[in-house]
Amino acid sequence: MEKSQSLHAYIKEELLDRIKAGKYMPGEKIPTELDLCKDFDVSRTTVRTALNQLTLEGYLSRIQGKGTFVAEQKVKQALSNTIKRYSDQIAVQGKKGIVSLVNISVIPANDMLQHLLDVFVNAPIQRIERVRKADGEPTQYEIAYIPWDVAPGIARKHAESSLYASLSDNFDVRIAKTTETIEIALADERTSKHLNCEEGMPCFYMETIAEDKKGNKVEFSRSYFRGDKTNFTIERNY
Q: What Pfam families does the record tag this protein with (predicted)?
């Protein structure tokens, strides 16, 4: 253990190493708090703090009266250049991915959308709310904004598949570049409802601006990813 590391942080790291090394498998019950206290020679409070953090981060799940179990592996999504659809990325992980439409509406562009999408104030903007699920569990809640002039009349059939593929196949709009910003946010009432999680749960929050090959901004989106169900892979070539 490093000198600067607290006991509960050390135990959390050790347990996480065991999970990632496959010593504790998904769905497997881990040793009891008492057994872990003996294993690490620490107090129950210290062990409980480590377990609570791993539970909050989605590596463990606690079932009242039964114990603590290793959670199913998180859904992995690529942030590197990829043309794979969500369902394809999920399929290679042995899960079934679906996109469910919550709502499509047309709204007037406000000052923010005017700035982000280079449109006039009050220009018609299609607002598309969707939820992505892996094996029926919500992992991502997204609100996308697409100017009407870019792709007039986006419908359910377009929104419940890859939106970028639909833009290309049905509207001759091809995404050439995306700029993404990621930070941590806490789930509010609306987000927690769509992600089926508690209010205040840490989520990855991503804002994306998509452009075509001419540099025209064709989409702005806000996405919330469940922090306990999702992680990201970034691949860079040098």
A: GntR, UTRA
- 224, 208, 87: which is closest to 142 by C-alpha? 224
In a shared domain, residues 11 and 83: no
- The helix (run of H) or strand (run of E) holding residue 205 is strand 202-211
Q: What's the structural domain count of the chain?
A: 2
pTM for this entry = 0.69
Triad 29, 30, 31: Cα angle to 5°: 125
pLDDT tens per residue, the chain (238 residues)? 544 458 888 898 889 888 877 889 988 999 999 999 999 999 999 999 999 888 877 788 888 888 899 987 766 555 555 445 544 554 545 567 789 999 999 999 998 899 899 999 999 999 999 999 988 889 999 999 999 999 999 999 999 988 998 999 999 999 999 888 888 888 888 888 999 998 888 888 888 999 999 999 999 998 989 988 887 777 777 8
* 170 and 89, same domain (yes or no): yes
Question: What range defines the domain where residue 157 resides?
Answer: 75-233
